[in-house]
Specification:
This protein is mostly helical. The chain has four helices and two strands; from the N terminus they run αβαααβ. Mean pLDDT is 77; it is low at 22-31 and 113-119.
């Protein structure tokens, strides 16, 4: 191998190692600036209830699960809590973290077919169970 080809190979290797470092995207931080998250290992029931589709009852279950089983290792471990399935978890995941501080300060509203809790159902819109004997048959 001539000195010239060796120098070219060395230069090419240098360029590749430098550009590969530049092209590799940094791992996204769990607590990016501006991203509102809830640390499921430290949050109180009130803080957990700020998550979309999470009320006080489910928030209490999360806190109870955490106290009985210890800290969550991964955010996916939240699915071990009764009431948190894959669908629910998917809607919560953008707001969850297992480290850092809780930065979510206001309730996140559910987007699909939601109505504020302060807004009651319209008259005549109450759901009736088919097995309810008090319901008139149609």
């Amino acid at each position: 191998m001539s000195l010239r080809s060796f120098a070219r190979s060395l230069a090419l290797l240098s360029v590749l190692s430098v550009t590969s470092g530049l092209l590799a995207a940094p791992a996204p931080s769990e607590n990016e600036p501006g991203k509102k998250t809830v640390n499921i290992n430290q949050a109180s029931a009130d803080e957990l209830a700020r998550l979309p589709k999470v009320g006080s009852k489910l928030a209490g279950r999360i806190v109870t699960h955490r106290s009985q089983h210890g800290s969550f290792k991964r955010v996916e471990d939240l699915m071990a809590v009764k009431g948190v399935g894959e669908k629910m978890f998917t809607s919560l995941k953008p707001y969850l973290t297992v480290s850092g501080s809780t930065t979510l300060t206001e309730k996140v509203s559910s987007t699909k077919g939601s109505r504020p809790a302060s807004q009651p159902r319209a008259p005549g819109k109450a759901t009736k169970k088919a097995s309810d004997p008090a319901s008139p048959a149609k």
